[in-house]
């Protein structure tokens, strides 16, 4: 059995089915993310694991032990919330020491542990400060130190970065991931931000409307999504509508080779997933037969890339071109060829 197991867990609040038939296995030491749009049941799942709410049906096991009926304080789980306000009237040191004082640890051991925790979160020397003297990122580090210092078996993080600005979020993403790896603590991370999930996780469960739709590594989720929903939710995507025809996909009369029909049979309507960065755009030329041809409908300058909208066979294809002088810039109205490697496309039913 895996380290953390949800078995047939369902939670309803009155008529709202927040989580439905959840079956999840999480390994020891894993960084596991629950990713999905607002209201899909991520926090509910975390709160059931922490013991703040009870499942309507189903069981939860940790380390082979059924913890479904245990109160939160008997579970050895630490949780950091989005706005985990640290106590404003206490110093950083006392905030971090809080859980240890509650456990009546002796003063020397508390001092040693808090100082080690401050060091660990990069806040050595900040013990005497108060909340008002800290940046958003530093507050979140204190919140994390406060949980890590009691050495829980499992760390739960519920959107811990959403209150921070973009630059700080970017920094903290890598920082949390590094701390998690160095401590080796089993971590479940909740976010609706796909870039956070892709950057930080060993595996991701993508949820929608109370259900898990796919579990996989970031590479699997991004490159082999199992549904149109996931293809559109994770990263940018083109879904070209077509029909299976003799092992290829027919898009408006042009046959396009594919790596794998993934169960689709001739005549089936399918969507062909093509990521904007996987497509090469060239001026129309007779020399190299393109996969598709089209016309530039719009071009948007975005600094590091140029984004082209290309009309092809009655559909719009988004193409991202790195902003480099050796890559051609194409004006609106230009006739263009689209190329891509067949392995970078995915057939979705
Ligand atoms: N205590 C509650 N009482 C009634 N309904 C609830 C309660 N908690 C959650 N819900 C409902 O359950 C569903 C799932 O909520 P949950 O908080 O798990 O979503 P979430 O995925 O964490 O969303 P967000 O990204 O917005 O935080 C929502 O429809 C929500 O309104
Ligand atoms: Mg939530």
CATH class annotation of the largest domain: Alpha Beta
Please tally the helical runs, counting DSSP H or I stretches of 4 or more residues: 8
Q: What is the average of the pLDDT values?
A: 93
Tally of strands: 20
Low-confidence spans: none
Name every ligand kind in the structure: adenosine-5'-triphosphate, magnesium ion
Cα shape: globular
Query: Helical residue percent?
Result: 10-25%
| N- to C-terminal distance | 33 Å
Just name the CATH architecture of the largest domain.
3-Layer(aba) Sandwich
> Largest sheet at a glance?
6 strands, mixed
The ordered H/E elements are EEEHEEEHHHEHEHEEHHEEEEEEEEEE
Summing up helix and strand content along with how strands pair, one would put the structural category as alpha+beta
CATH-derived topology of the largest domain: Rossmann fold
Q: What proportion strand?
A: 25-35%
- Tally the structural domains: 2
For this structure, what is the CATH homologous superfamily of the largest domain? P-loop containing nucleotide triphosphate hydrolases
Q: What Rg do the Cα atoms give?
A: 25 Å
Largest sheet strand order: 6-7-8-3-9-10
Please provide a written account of the structure.
The protein has 349 residues and is α+β, with helices and mostly antiparallel strands. It folds into two domains: 4-228, 3-Layer(aba) Sandwich (Rossmann fold), CATH 3.40.50; 240-348, OB fold (Dihydrolipoamide Acetyltransferase, E2P) (Beta Barrel), CATH 2.40.50. It contains eight helices and 20 strands. The protein has helices spanning 42-50, 92-102, 107-120, 136-148, 166-183, 194-200, 218-223, 228-233, and strands spanning 4-13, 16-26, 31-35, 57-62, 65-66, 77-80, 154-158, 186-191, 203-208, 211-216, 238-245, 248-251, 254-257, 269-274, 280-283, 292-301, 305-312, 315-322, 335-339, 345-348. It has a six-stranded mixed beta sheet with strand order 6-7-8-3-9-10, with helices on both faces. Strands 13-12-11-14-20 form a five-stranded antiparallel beta sheet. Helix 2 (92-102) packs across helix 3. The longest helix has 18 residues, at 166-183. It is globular. The model has no long low-confidence stretch (mean pLDDT 93). The chain binds adenosine-5'-triphosphate (ATP) and magnesium ion.
């Amino acid at each position: 059995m895996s380290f953390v197991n949800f078995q047939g867990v369902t939670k309803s609040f009155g008529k709202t089915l927040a989580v439905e038939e959840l079956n999840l296995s999480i390994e020891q030491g894993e960084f596991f993310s629950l990713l999905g749009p607002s209201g899909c049941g991520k926090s509910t799942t975390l709160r059931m694991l922490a013991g703040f709410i009870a499942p309507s049906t189903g069981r939860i096991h940790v380390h082979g032990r059924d913890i479904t009926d245990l109160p939160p304080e008997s579970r050895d789980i630490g949780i950091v919330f989005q706005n985990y306000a640290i106590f404003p009237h206490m110093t950083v040191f006392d905030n971090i020491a809080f859980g240890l004082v509650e456990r009546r640890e002796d003063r020397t051991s508390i001092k040693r542990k808090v100082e080690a925790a401050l060091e660990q979160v990069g806040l050595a020397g900040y013990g005497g400060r108060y909340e008002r003297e800290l940046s958003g990122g530093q507050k979140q580090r204190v919140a994390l130190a406060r949980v890590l210092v009691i050495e829980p078996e499992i760390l739960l993080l519920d959107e811990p970065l959403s209150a921070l600005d973009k630059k700080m979020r970017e920094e903290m993403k890598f920082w949390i991931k590094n701390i998690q790896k160095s401590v080796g603590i089993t971590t479940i991370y909740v976010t609706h931000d796909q870039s956070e999930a892709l950057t930080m996780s060993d595996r991701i469960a993508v949820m929608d409307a109370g259900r898990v739709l796919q579990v996989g590594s970031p590479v699997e989720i991004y490159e082999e999504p199992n549904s149109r929903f996931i293809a559109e939710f994770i990263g940018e995507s083109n879904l070209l509508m077509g029909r299976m025809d003799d092992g290829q996909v027919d898009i408006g009369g042009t046959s396009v080779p594919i790596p794998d029909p993934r169960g689709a049979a001739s005549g089936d309507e399918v969507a062909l997933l093509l990521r904007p960065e996987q497509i090469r755009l060239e001026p129309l030329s007779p020399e190299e037969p393109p996969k598709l041809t089209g016309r530039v409908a719009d071009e948007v300058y975005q600094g590091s890339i140029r984004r082209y909208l290309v009309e092809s066979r009655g559909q719009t294809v988004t193409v991202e071109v790195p902003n480099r002088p050796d890559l051609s810039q194409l004006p609106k109205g230009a006739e263009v060829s689209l190329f891509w490697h067949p392995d970078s496309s995915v057939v979705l039913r």
